[in-house]
Design a protein that fits this description.
CATH superfamily of the largest domain: Schlafen, AAA domain
Number of domains: 4
Number of helices: 17
InterPro entries: Schlafen_AlbA_2_dom, Schlafen_AlbA_2_dom_sf, WH-like_DNA-bd_sf, WH_DNA-bd_sf
Protein name: DNA binding domain-containing protein
Strand content: 15-25%
Distance between the termini: 66 Å
Organism: Lipingzhangella rawalii
Number of strands: 15
Pfam families: SLFN_AlbA_2 (PF04326)
CATH class of the largest domain: Alpha Beta
Shape: flat
CATH topology of the largest domain: Methyltransferase, Cobalt-precorrin-4 Transmethylase, Domain 2
């Protein structure tokens, strides 16, 4: 949770990533209270101060149980019972200027947590610099589970793959690498059998079932291409084409790491790049489409895209009167130079006319 402050230091510093204020003049509902806890738990943990206004004024917490008071143990139990996996909070009543403030200390959750009704929230910083709670979307849930080690796709079985798809030479290569390493614990692997290596790495593989990690580490190239069509799934984005940024989300890596991965796939003939560096996109090669029994995908991308782009630009101009190079680039997912070539071609064909100069240039329908 970071450096620990006094409770009144939290008030003076105001709301931040780890501190949330809740007015209790109309009594915070159990539902809203639990959602606030979930939000903090999916951040870095923190504390929820009930009975404090957004500006830091203490107005006091309303008693939630018998005799006008609040039982901290019961409130902590309510939070645990309404979160999944349960969040174990510490609840205290603190007096300030004659008013009671409920301080709910929320631990950082090693797993993504939600309410038992299925609500997932995360802590985030708004554009104005203030802390807020936002919905945790499906792809973010998956990414966080992987980052925290809660989901390990290397252990997933790959349908149709088995021990025969693993290459003995790849095991030998790993043995040579670990034997030459300076880490004594790693060198133990060099003395294990092939099956013992996969078991030691948590990638147990049987005759009829290989895990994704075992196939990626030790698989024959043909088997990897057949059984782990990661590239196929990635390129389903935007009709089998995707940008580096989009693929970085799929691979759970940085854009630099993703570009390095994509360069290797280009060398193997699996994919082809389109456009310049900033506006570059990627799609499956003709050879890969044939392997996947989908040659029409390559034809569609290479043959139909110019017609689609032309139609999109003309439709935009008809509807709005004109289009700029930047608008065309954004509309058709092109780089600025590609958009310029598209617009100049439409001008040369008499379908558009160019108006203005330099930064003021725009394109409209012929008079």
């Amino acid at each position: 949770m970071g450096a620990r402050k006094s409770r009144w230091g939290w008030l003076q510093d105001g709301e931040d990533y780890e501190t949330e204020f809740k007015s209790d003049r109309k009594q915070v509902s159990d539902h809203d209270l639990v959602e606030a806890v979930v939000c903090l738990a999916n951040g870095s943990g923190g504390r929820l101060l009930i009975g404090v206004e957004d500006d830091g004024r203490v107005t006091g917490a309303v008693g939630r149980h018998e005799h006008g008071g609040t039982d901290p143990v019961r409130l902590a139990a309510l939070i645990a019972n309404r979160t999944e996996p349960p969040v174990t909070c510490q609840v205290n009543e603190v007096e300030s200027d004659g008013s009671t403030v409920l301080v709910v200390e929320v631990p950082h959750s090693p797993r993504v947590t939600g309410t038992t009704s299925g609500t997932y929230l995360r802590r985030a910083m708004g554009q104005d610099g203030s802390a807020t709670c936002r919905p945790l979307r499906a792809h973010e849930l998956l990414a966080r589970e992987i980052d925290r080690g809660a989901a390990d796709f290397a252990r997933l079985p790959i349908p149709g793959a088995g021990w025969e798809d693993l290459d003995p030479f790849e095991f030998e290569r790993v043995r040579r690498l670990v034997a030459a390493s300076g880490n004594r614990a790693d060198r133990v692997l060099a003395k294990l059998s092939d099956r013992e290596i996969t078991a030691a790495l948590g990638l147990e593989t049987t005759e009829a079932e290989a895990t994704a990690g075992a196939l990626l580490l030790f698989g024959r190239e043909a088997a990897v291409r057949t059984h782990i069509p990661t590239h196929q799934a990635a390129f389903q984005v935007q009709q089998r084409r995707a940008t580096t940024t989009e693929l970085a989300t799929v691979t759970q890596g940085t854009e630099k790491e993703t570009r390095r991965l994509l360069a290797g796939m280009v060398e193997r003939g699996w994919i082809q790049p389109r456009g310049e560096r900033k506006g570059r996109s990627w799609h499956l090669s003709a050879a890969a489409d044939r392997e996947l029994q989908a040659p029409e995908g390559y034809t569609r991308i290479r043959g139909f895209e110019p017609l689609q782009q032309e139609q999109m630009v003309l439709t935009h101009v008809t509807a709005h009167g004109s289009i700029t190079r930047g608008q065309a680039a954004e509309l058709c997912a092109l780089s600025p130079s590609q958009a310029s070539r598209l617009l100049k071609r439409l001008v040369s064909e008499g379908k558009l006319r160019q108006q203005g100069e330099r930064k003021g240039t725009y394109y409209a329908l012929p008079e």
